[in-house]
């Protein structure tokens, strides 16, 4: 319903902000990490939003980037994870680190997040890896052709970025501008996110 809200910050609390847009104050729940990055009250800020509807509650959740929003939506798709826990996870781990942990089956990294036990971490990895399989794929011939020119680092970075909702074509176009030979997987992901976020 709302893609984003742009307005003045009217109030900041531990788990939400109020954004004033044309005289209407929108109460938007955000992760603590995101709230700490916000400018002072009175300053203007654009916040990407997720309109969350349940039988007993309608809430707006906010994010500073589309990557955070995609990660939030992915987390909500995991059985047993609600909006509050998804925000808690966002406060503890960056989208790129989260994507890497999912792709590499790094359950131990996800377990370090407060509120996440080993069973939940394993479920996150299992369910989100399944989602990757349903990603819109390019043809087999194109995949083979591209794979010839890409090393393991590139492919690992591409898979991690696909978790965040980008298509393979978008990612490959971004990676063309990166010196992947002299960059680690995390650096490739970080640089690609910077390009994709423009």
Describe the model.
The chain is of the alpha+beta class. The chain folds into three domains: 4-63, Nucleic acid-binding proteins (OB fold (Dihydrolipoamide Acetyltransferase, E2P), Beta Barrel); 66-133, DNA polymerase, domain 1, CATH 1.10.150; 140-196, Helicase, Ruva Protein, domain 3 (Orthogonal Bundle), CATH 1.10.8. The chain has ten helices and five strands; from the N terminus they run βββαββααααααααα. Strands 1-2-3-5-4 form a five-stranded mixed beta barrel. Helix 4 crosses helix 8 (152-163), helix 8 (152-163) crosses helix 10 and helix 9 packs across helix 10. The relative contact order is 0.10.
CATH topology of the largest domain: DNA polymerase, domain 1
Q: How does the overall form come out from the CA principal axes?
A: globular
Strand proportion: 15-25%
Number of helices: 10
CATH class of the largest domain: Mainly Alpha
**Helix and strand succession?**
EEEHEEHHHHHHHHH
* Biggest sheet: strand arrangement: 1-2-3-5-4
Characteristics:
198 residues; alpha+beta; OB fold (Dihydrolipoamide Acetyltransferase, E2P); DNA polymerase, domain 1; Helicase, Ruva Protein, domain 3; 3 domains
Q: Short summary of the structure?
A:
The chain has 198 residues and is α+β, with helices and mostly antiparallel strands. The chain folds into three domains: 4-63, OB fold (Dihydrolipoamide Acetyltransferase, E2P) (Beta Barrel), CATH 2.40.50; 66-133, 5' to 3' exonuclease, C-terminal subdomain (DNA polymerase, domain 1, Orthogonal Bundle), CATH 1.10.150; 140-196, Ubiquitin-associated (UBA) domain (Helicase, Ruva Protein, domain 3). It contains ten helices and five strands; from the N terminus they run βββαββααααααααα.
């Amino acid at each position: 319903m709302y893609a984003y809200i742009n307005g003045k910050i009217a109030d900041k609390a531990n788990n939400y902000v109020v954004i004033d847009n044309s005289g209407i104050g929108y109460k938007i729940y955000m992760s603590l990490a995101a709230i700490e990055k916000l400018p002072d009250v009175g300053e203007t800020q654009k916040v990407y939003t997720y309109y969350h509807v349940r039988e007993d509650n309608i809430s707006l959740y906010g994010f500073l980037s589309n990557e955070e929003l995609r990660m939030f939506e992915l987390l909500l798709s995991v059985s047993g994870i609600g909006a509050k826990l998804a925000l808690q996870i966002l406060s503890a781990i960056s989208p790129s680190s989260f994507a890497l942990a999912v792709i590499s089956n790094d359950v131990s990294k996800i377990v370090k997040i407060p509120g996440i036990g080993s069973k939940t971490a394993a479920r996150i990895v299992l369910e989100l890896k399944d989602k990757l399989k349903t990603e819109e794929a390019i043809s087999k011939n194109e995949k083979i052709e591209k794979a010839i020119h890409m090393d393991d680092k590139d492919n690992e970075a591409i898979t991690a970025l696909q978790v965040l909702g980008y298509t393979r074509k978008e990612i490959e176009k971004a990676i063309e501008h990166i010196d992947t030979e002299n960059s680690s997987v995390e650096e490739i992901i970080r640089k690609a996110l910077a390009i994709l976020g423009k």
